[in-house]
Amino acid sequence: VQFVESGGALVQPGGSLTLSCAAAEFTFSAYAMSWYRQAPGKEREYVAGIGESGTMRRYADSVKDRFSISRDNVKKIMYLQMNSLNSEDTAVYYCNQGFTRPLRDSWGQGTQVTVSS
Question: Which residues have CB under 8 Å from 107's CB, separation 6+?
């Protein structure tokens, strides 16, 4: 199982960014997927999850109404559209299997999102 996150960047407060998670070596469409993030000095935390078909979605309270999770089962890619970014969103973002908790112990390299003026 492999997860490859991309799309992180330095963005100004109030800006937007879209992250991608490319999955390999498993049947992508058979698994719910989720995003997590880890800020410096903090534990990794749940951000959002999406069901196998993309119909079910769940968000952490801290990102609800600002972030949108989606997936393309043909391309085997999951996305995280992030709007109205603020400094508290600065973190390394990771993806994993599972809807509300990670199913795999192994993680990808993550993608760095820095929100700063």
Answer: 3, 94, 96
- Of the chain, the end-to-end C-alpha distance in Å amounts to 37
Sheet holding 77-82, edge to edge: 2-6, 17-24, 77-82, 67-72
Give the span between the Cα atoms of 117 and 20, in whole angstroms. Answer: 24
User: pLDDT tens string for the chain (117 positions)?
Assistant: 789 999 999 999 999 999 999 988 889 999 999 999 999 999 999 999 999 999 999 999 999 999 999 999 999 999 999 999 999 999 999 999 999 999 999 999 999 999 999
Report the alpha-carbon distance of residue 94 to residue 96 in Å, rounded: 7
Q: Tell me which residue of 32, 71, 23 sits closest to 51, measured CA to CA.
A: 32
Look at residues 2, 84, 103 and name the one whose alpha carbon lies nearest to residue 46: 103
Q: Would strands 77-82 and 17-24 be described as parallel, antiparallel, or unpaired?
A: antiparallel
Report the distance separating Cα 70 and Cα 33, nearest Å: 10
